[in-house]
Amino acid sequence: MMSERILIVRLGSLGDIVHTLPVISALKRAMPHSQIDWIVDERNQAILELTQGLNRLIVLPTRAKSIIGTWKILRELRQQHYDAALDLQGLMKSAVVARVSGAKRIIGFSREHLRESAARLFYTEVCAPSNKPHVIDKNLSGAAALGADVTLKEFPISVPASAKPAELRSKLGLQPSTDYVLLNPGAAWPNKRWLPARFGELASWIKSHHNLGCGVLWGPGEQSLAEEVVAFSNGTAVIAPRTTIGDLVALIKDARLVVSGDTGPMHIAAAVETAIVGIYGPTDPLRNGPWAPGDLTISRFSDCGCHHRRRCGAAQWCLESIPVGDVIDAVEQRLQIVRDNE
């Protein structure tokens, strides 16, 4: 019999959580009446509050709060009597949480697919990812271990009502429902950030060739980076409004195109089926990139000497070798695909 009380353990980060959302849909298709709970780091709970199909969202306090409070939450997990806990993060921390839940089956990735190999000690069984390279397929192997069909990639995200798209259009001097483009220069890893001057030059080209205004996204600590892009845009770009995660989802869903590095907003764009041009350096777009047939990436992963590192330690930074012209060509091609599909 298929397990029907299931705990998903994926504590963070934003993009990684988005890549895990199809697991909910796969499990619900296989077991419509199942109880699916998710435990998440409090810093990443907002995206899951927009997710359909979860029975319960358990928020683990990981900031400066009492250890007693954290253990109280973990003890409460045991009272749910889970049939299975899926550790889809592969860290010692997430594996311990899965084990402490008291679930009958503790399922995680095989050792070669773990971020911290010692996590394997806490599992009762492992799921075997397919030979497909994308991390979404890796995550779906957890659902497959519970008997779910994982051929579809469905993202159960609800797009909330938000005033931010209208606010951005107003800042750009656009009429309601007029298209706009979003540029996302930020990323948690400095190694993933394409140069602000080139984003600015791209915004200027988009305006002059397609008459589309550009909003520059920014998150905590990134406002000055967005201001740099605007300063290099010759007045064609504006800073996007301050957003919650819900506002960000609405803003991205309403955009004509998103141009971004490998980071959360780009993965949200892929999940809500907004057109994308991705810019990749230290990470592999075959693993982390957009998956829609029309989406495009410019990648230097094969030339990068600092794979999966936050900061570049090579003599030549790989993203610096991506000229504006390459991104312009990809934007032109992606916008044409959008027009052809209308």
TrEMBL record:
Keyword Membrane: yes
Subcellular location: Cell inner membrane
GO biological process, one term: lipopolysaccharide core region biosynthetic process
EC number: 2.4.99.23
Annotated catalysed reactions: an alpha-Kdo-(2->4)-alpha-Kdo-(2->6)-lipid A + ADP-L-glycero-beta-D-manno-heptose = an L-alpha-D-Hep-(1->5)-[alpha-Kdo-(2->4)]-alpha-Kdo-(2->6)-lipid A + ADP + H(+)
An example molecular function term from Gene Ontology annotations: ADP-heptose-lipopolysaccharide heptosyltransferase activity
Alphabetical UniProt keywords: Cell inner membrane, Cell membrane, Glycosyltransferase, Lipopolysaccharide biosynthesis, Membrane, Transferase
Pathway: Bacterial outer membrane biogenesis; LPS core biosynthesis
Gene3D superfamilies in alphabetical order: Glycogen Phosphorylase B
Major enzyme class: transferase
Matches recorded under Pfam families: Glyco_transf_9 (PF01075)
Membrane-topology annotation of the record: Peripheral membrane protein
InterPro entries associated with the record: Glyco_trans_9 (IPR002201), LipoPS_heptosylTferase-I (IPR011908), LPS_LOS_Heptosyltrfase (IPR051199)
GO cellular component: cytosol; plasma membrane
Entries under NCBIfam families matching the protein: heptsyl_trn_I (TIGR02193)
Entry protein name: Lipopolysaccharide heptosyltransferase 1
Organism: marine metagenome
Lineage of producing organism: unclassified sequences, metagenomes, ecological metagenomes
